[in-house]
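Troubleshooting: if your tokenizer reports a length mismatch, compare against these two reference records.
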Amino acid sequence: MKTKHISEILKILALIIVIVFASCNKKKDTVKTTSEPEITDNILLAEWTGPYGGTPAFDKMKVEDIKPALEKGMELNLKEIDKIANNPEFPTFENTIVEMERSGQDLNRVFTYYGILSSNMSSPEFREIQKEMAPKLSEFQSKISQNEKLFQRIKTVYDNSLKTPLEGDQQRVVQLTYESFAMNGAELDEEQKKRYAAINKELSELYTNFSNNILADEEGYVTYLTKDQLGGLSEPLIKSYAKAATDRGQEGKYAVTNTRSSMDPFLKYSTERDIREKVWRNYYSRGDNGDDKDNNENIAKILKLRKERVGLLGYDNYADWRLQNRMAKNPENAMKLMNAVWPAAIARVKEEVADMQAIADANGNRFSIEPWDYRYYAEKVRKKKYDLDSDEVKQYLQLDNLREAMFFVAGELFGYKFTPVEDGKVPVFHSDVKVWEVNDKNSGEHIGLWYLDPFARTGKRSGAWANTYRSHTTFDGKKTVLGSNNSNFVKPAPGEPVLVSWDDAETFFHEFGHALHFFSSEVRYPTLNGGVRDYTEFQSQLLERWLATDKVIDKYLVHYKTGEPMPKTLVDKVKKAATFNQGFATTEYLASALMDMKFHLADPINIDVDQFEKETLSELNMPKELVMRHRTPHFGHVFSGEGYATAYYGYMWADVLTSDAAEAFAEAPGGFYDKEVAAKLVKYLFAPRNAMDPAEAYRKFRGRDAKIEALMKDRGFPVK
């Protein structure tokens, strides 16, 4: 189960699509447009040139170009929309929907750079521009979503398609386009539309403030260590912390930065309990320090505005509005799933804490397990119960080898071949970024490029995510995919390997699953490259399962010094301990998912965000020994935009599909590399993207709906 990515996300161009709604700004193509000649004066608007169908000029982007490029891009896009809306010809699929699919290419090129500058290369200068442009982008989106003439044309095409159905994918595009406009206020009266647009504008500013506050707290809190405070830490980790300190002008010290990839291993291995507490408090208090970066007031305003906005559309709460076109359909179904798993999860936590407390007591420690102790003592229990040392496992999890393992899996399941692109042939935005060409390994057909940005740095948001710079489409000339994976591994000292935990290795595979979803797309229209939020994590969560397959373990999980494969005894321990610590993993995730839903079902008038969080968790009997994976003041999935708002449950919804689909492979003659099941996987669950209803797609793959029993069994929970 992974909650790291975003990503959606997806999560990052979501910082644009956070501010707005994803319906109209979803195309990443680079075909020639009829835009005015002067746009080429700004590199961010210019068509992409060079090999591979053209690539973004990341090496030439400048922060100062963002504002004029966005303003010009919006102007050009609105002209395109006005032309469609005022077309005197009767509305048809070709002259309305297809033209909308074709529009906005200049602006979408700018969004590609904007996404990089907001997520991978942020700076104080950019954040000021972000604050200024957020409301303007919201107003721009409202001009499209509230264009009455445009909506009437869309509605005419939609109504006619119900009488005389179009081709399957065309029908799906029309349906999604109509629903998106209707859900975003296209049918409101003029006064309601004005208020709707004003709310969106205010929300866009709040989302930007929320995100920037988190980033400021991630950059602003660093814990520096001295040599006598390194107890329990491995040599590679010490070297990484030393480099992080040197990079910050603290030569001779060791820096634990305020990101998950830096915090997590410290809490797991450090023997310095008081420093563990400090690192833990720094991380989990992001956005909640009572200063000018505190997010509680932002959250209260967001909740009120969201409820008011959906009230204009006739909905009682935000969750009812948001989930109507998701697999869950309504918050009751989402809550039913979470409530089915929650009791087993917190019961397992109680067992885990008892095991940890026994070890602490046996060592003569006179304290009760606290949240900053959980990871540390969980490792002690792991070693005692399974004779498994996570640090020993890390010696076999070298980042470069994991990348090659992912390429191997992609070749076996999808028929892809990844070849490094020579440095300098494709522009990149940082020297850490490397690029690979993706081809069909049988025909040699070019599929796209894969960009990897693996390391943490100042100005890069925490977590791991995947996104696209250009999506596959065929309606207007075939477009190849430019996809990326972004991580926050601690950069090693020169010449040292990057060794990661098993959990981080799964996350690496997870995000690569998103990339494979991008590359496998076989859709005609840009809209169909979108996704249903409680389904889009399924494909990536499923790919995690291949990390533990024998073919990957035997060939790629080799010791970083000796090159020897992971011994069978260690492999057996890893597999035997697969359900270990599932109480912690499931509870910290589910607590966040439940809070997300409960915040949006509650009355937000006069809400005290901190108090609501405490009281709700108390009602849920949240174990005191751990916290939500994402505490509310830094819950970026939900409050830096709308992509995962009332949709964080989607990771578990998708994991029901994941566990069930994994059983299909486990039951097949060829196991996880069975060619017949793999072909069905690609055909029904990856290639269609959103051209097919997800429930229908899954039934075509499995022959039935998914069942929750496989999920419970995977976690080692009782199956009723």
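Reference record two:
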Amino acid sequence: MQLELAHASHFQESAVPDGTRLAGWAALAQALSIKAPVRRPSCVSEKHIKGSQREEDTWQVFDKRYWPGDTFADHLTFAFRHEVLDLLILKRVFDAAPMDAVEELVRAAPTGVPARRLWFFYEKLTGRTLNLPDGQNVAAIDLLDPAAYVTAKPRLSRRHRVRDNLLGAARFCPVIRRTKALEEFVGRALDEKARETVGRTGSHLVARAASFMLLADSRASFEIEGERPPRNRLERWGRAVVQAGRNKLDVDEIVRLHQVLIEDTRFIQPGLRRESVFLGERDHNYDPLPEFIGARPDDLADLMEGLIEANDRMSEAGIDPVLQATITAFGFVYIHPLQDGNGRLHRCLIHHVLAERKFTPAGMVFPVSSVMLNRMDNYRTTLQADTGPLMPFIEWRPTPDRNVEVLNDTADLYRYFDYTAAAEFLYGCVQRAVEHDLPREIEYLRRHDEALRRIMDTVEMPDRLAEDLIMFIRQNGGVLSKRRRQGEFEPLSDEEVAQLEFVVQEAFDGFDEIAVSAA
């Protein structure tokens, strides 16, 4: 099948580099009027360039020798050989192209690696069966290259002679590329480091550290949403997180965790939402100005079952727990299946996967939300980089009740994401929590207990007052302020105050420098 490949100056709101022609995914999307974002477009120069390819803004520019040709098969094969797998574009291409064009491609080289992979993907993603006999008795191939992608335990498709090692299935199929950053994160064995830190610490100290970190994570998760909730709501969040990993994750468990998180449902619809949802602002008439629109209500059940199916497959395959947590938690928040609380439950699901996979020491919660709060710009950028490009392809209109109504079929937009950048972000947060926050909290408590013991040896006072004394001295640069000296600590003599200041100073000597170097 020939493609109409007129020279384009712009493609999906981006200027095409001068002297180049669209190739691969971009060429297919342009020729077939695909309504989906090509996130890493490619083009081929009309001249020789230094090296075989180069990066130019968001473009991958190939030397003229890479020009594949003018047919559907040429550009689909180019995409598979030279570009990152884009399942969303592939699915939309299969929907737009005639079935006989795909059959022709496979028949031309039925035992070839690209043809077999395309054949499998066509039938997997569309649910349609090509008019082709089962594959010949040749050696099976991996669907995804395990050296380039994170892959699951393979399942042989005898018809295609392909080993399906995808992380999900047709209704929810995530991709994570193997990058240098992710390989380094995985190689740090952060779960072992956490267990070593906990193992050399007394159980009582560990329990207190866990309690403090859970509270910090609770506060941070609400602050990310711009909220400062009362203590009882923080405690509900804590209960939801502590329960994470105890029960098998499914849609019912997600709904149950949501009910733990939000007890008062008088104004919140429990369970999967039955109306649209958007994030963004409103204009002066209070009409929506969405920056993000969640999946349509009619698509939620299928998308969530697909998400759970992928989570189960990753668990069964022993996929790295942080990578699994990335897909499950970020996939959830991109679908946005609840009327409210999606962001908090998204972060709760991170804890769920890490606990269920025993990445986190028993009874411990890594304060991932605290790290995310400290890296809020990176967190927002990660979320927006995945969801922002979808908005031009979502047709919507405002409703009389000032919500949004989605007018086109958008389900595929939420099925197929590349989670590589999100995985790198989350792994960085987990690394910070394990290598800095956990040992810092334990070290703080150890020094605090030592200071408390020595204070009580110097002056007899209630524990709470002694703990306040430590806090006030540390907050004031190592000395007790005049206001506090004349207030609740007025009974102390000048000599006693000096002794107590020295106790706190000595106990915490070098602590802040340790914290900074660890960061």
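Descriptive notes for reference record two:
- DSSP finds 21 helices and 13 strands in the chain.
- The radius of gyration is 28 Å.
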